[in-house]
Amino acid sequence: xxxxxxxxxxxxxxxxxxxxxxxxxxxxxxxxxxxxxxxxxxxxxxxxxxxxxxxxxxxxxxxxxxxxxxxxxxxxxxxxxxxxxxxxxxxxxxxxxxxxxxxxxxxxxxxxxxxxxxxxxxxxxxxxxxxxxxxxxxxxxxxxxxxxxxxxxxxxxxxxxxxxxxxxxxxxxxxxxxxxxxxxxxxxxxxxxxxxxxxxxxxxxxxxxxxxxxxxxxxxxxxxxxxxxxxxxxxxxxxxxxxxxxxxxxxxxxxxxxxxxxxxxxxxxxxxxxxxxxxxxxxxxxxxxxxxxxxxxxxxxxxxxxxxxxxxxxxxxxxxxxxxxxxxxxxxxxxxxxxxxxxxxxxxxxxxxxxxxxxxxxxxxxxxxxxxxxxxxxxxxxxxxxxxxxxxxxxxxxxxxxxxxxxxxxxxxxxxxxxxxxxxxxxxxxxxxxxxxxxxxxxxxxxxxxxxxxxxxxxxxxxxxxxxxxxxxxxxxxxxxxxxxxxxxxxxxxxxx
Length: 497
Fold this sequence. Notes:
By secondary structure, the protein is an alpha/beta fold. Helix content is 51%, strand content 14%.
């Protein structure tokens, strides 16, 4: 179901009418990585009595219609280019769905679409692809009235299925259990990664963050291993609902269903070779947007789009940032003979794009300010370790204590544990280069100097020496003193460019 209605820069209001809640999200900006202008939900319970009566109750219907009327007032104020309402399991399975959709259409001025189970699964899967372009595993989306499964690779989506078993109608005797077990065992058994979508699953993630005191208070790309899941399950069995309510960002409506989500994931682990659960930020709403983008737009890097937008509003030297990366790639890395993977180069490029962030702050707080701002930015298309890597590079670009590596790592130890020792070494090395380039006034006066100098002698005079495999004890940063303090020589070299 593709409408091809979205342009590169657009705005759209999406109302997600689920079995448990009705939510409005208004997106704007570049639709490959849109900003969320508005996000609000109401618990309406459309699917609460559906298993017994096959009907949506009058009370739930009234709550739903009133929610949409309220959302209409928001939409009219914001005036997005497009608006759509997506109806999922509760409405598609209700005997009175035509009556409900007609009432929704009367009060809602945009398109009203009732999704089939397969369409819902497809949008959820596309949402994962949009947020995690390299996703490779199985999607499991559990809402109030249905459960969707699909297999995803960077280039293909297959084995899409939907089952009328959700949080609100979950019973151990439900006839769909055998079908789901068979589906996982036959088509998803060997998948190492399961990507989790749905409010009940996110509640588990919130608990995991809380009990493990993780520095990141965000769910996107959070990974929970098999071992960590069972440790969390054991911890949750020890505490009551009152204690769970103290956990930030968890609602009472979600807490009462957490045991169901635990049971479902426990079953997944027993039926498959799953090694970890990963949480994407996006779901069916973002998947709907992704499908309605031109194919070329889908291939763009969402992280780069977001960081460029931040850079345009908060950084000074946009051209310089790009030329800095080009110089690091074409001169510095070749000089030290360091071969890097495409993804390593990508992360360094992303760091250069945002490297001037925090320039307007005082010198004392500039580094930490930029570091925390990047970590708290809602970025997709990037792993948590990569996010830390970028933040670390930008911190190093600003810090006055660049030579005190041990002091810096101790200060940032809460986050740097996400990086391996090799990643920390690389980040520090490139961060030192960024620091040097930004502290040379002559480079800012003529940014083209960075790319125009053809003689490798310039690099050898001011940059760290290459690693000598015959002398492993020699650090690649052994020439830092020369790099930062022999300014007279550097200035003379720059005048020759």
